Amino acid sequence: MKKFLFALLVIVGSISFAQDFGISFSGFVKTDIIYDSRQTVSLREGHFLLYPANEKMDLNNADVNAASNFNILSIQTRLLGKITGPDAFDAKTSGQIEAEFFGTSDADINGFRLRHAFVKFDWEKTSLLVGQTWHPMFISEVFPGVVSFNTGAPFQPFSRNPQIRLSQTFDHIKMIITAASQRDFSSNGPDGFTSAYLRNSVLPNLNAQVQFSKGNNLIGVGLDFKKITPRLVTTKNFITKNSISTLSFTGYFKFNADPFIIKSQAVYGPNLSDLMMIGGYAVKATNAADGQEEYTGIKVLSTWAEVIYGKEIEFGLFGGYSKNLGADENISGSYYGRATNIDNLFRISPRVQWNSGKSRISTELEYTSAAYGKNNNSNKGKVIDTKSVSNLRLLFAVYYFF
Predict the structure, then answer these.
(1) Phi, psi of 60, rounded to the nearest 5 degrees
(2) What is the pLDDT of residues 201-251, one digit of tens each?
(3) What pLDDT, on the 0 to 100 scale, is given for residue 19?
(4) How many helices and strands in the chain, by DSSP H and E?
(5) Where along the chain do its domains lie?
(6) Centroid of chain to Cα 46
(7) Distances from the Cα of 242 to the Cαs of 91, 225, 273, 298, 337, in angstroms?
(8) What are phi and psi of 3, to 5 degrees?
(9) Is pTM beyond 0.90 here?
């Protein structure tokens, strides 16, 4: 079936219409050669690295996770189809389909999965996008250019979501409003990671941003509202409608003095685990009679910055830091999220990339340290008694663009 779909895409891509309307294909083949100095918390056999795994002691009090790891993978290989067509509703129309062989889970590694699929209507100063693409907290004009497929996560928001996005431009100012759902990247809760918590709230994830751009330079701010309903029924079998609503903020900029570029972003807020970031939320109180739960968000401050220099031979340096700030109230029950027992994370990763024609050879050294501890429920869930563990990743990648 997958071979049939791929052949169909190729056939469709070979068809052109009047006025050069149709679909054009591009993409790249990429192979990653990866060495890690210890076991990691990651996806797809270690390809998408988040942070080093916590210590795990055997009966001799030796750390099982101190073992190193090596792998070679080509699953990031990607196919992009850009679609153009005639005007509609007095707007220029376009579309995009993008997929790769990353799969939707570790069991589906090598699977052909959807990344982007949207249609876009462009009027003179107004743009409407409908479909799946980057979450608005992932700023497509300002994101890390690291070699690693994590693209700076968990310091950088990383998620693709079905959405409706409206943009309005006023000279150098752009205002963006987005309503999004969840699909491959979802919130955590009693049933694990699933989009059901957002769907059961009957309210999309809402985001608003303002950007100022001049030339190739950009600065922007945004806020993100999310409401999720972790349960429909309590553990005592009573209907519950209790939910948790959170508001997050971001600020970012890009300074481009080609071939010298500086980029940075900061994110502050609770319950960001659906964006591949640390933190989440927890149960602050439970009614003993019917099991009704009340929730509080675990706030995180995360920031990253990157410096890039060069074209044919590119040098880059990425640095990131995340801090678990705890909740607004004390915690009495379960924690839901990602790495809620990490107090802080930091990463530094220098890289060199050599571009020649359609080919690129890249190497990157990625050092990530995580301070693991235990949550102090009586002090708003803050992480105490920490111990840092670190991982050194050496990554070598070969690309061929087409």
Answers:
(1) -95, 10
(2) 999 999 999 999 999 999 999 999 999 999 999 999 999 999 999 999 999
(3) 52
(4) 2, 21
(5) 2-401
(6) 16
(7) 43, 17, 20, 17, 18
(8) -65, -40
(9) yes
Q: How far is CA 129 from CA 96, 162, 199, in A?
A: 11, 10, 21
Superfamily of domain covering 2-401: Porin (2.40.160.10)
Residue 399 CA to residue 401 CA, distance in Å, equals 6
Which tokens in the block code for residue 263? 């980029």
Handedness of CA 309, 312, 313, 319 (dihedral sign): positive
143: DSSP letter: -
Q: Which residue has the tokens 């192979």?
A: 31
- Cα 332 to Cα 13: distance, rounded to the nearest angstrom: 57
Q: How many residues are recorded in the chain?
A: 402
Give pLDDT tens digits for 333-369: 999 999 999 999 999 999 999 999 999 999 999 999 9
Task: Identify the three-state secondary structure at position 5.
Answer: helix
Q: What does the block give as tokens for 265?
A: 């972003």
Q: Which residues neighbour 12 within 8 Å (Cβ) at sequence distance 6 or greater?
A: 23
Which residue in this structure is represented by tokens 């890009």? Answer: 254
pLDDT digits (tens, 9 = 90+) for 68-88: 999 999 999 999 999 999 999
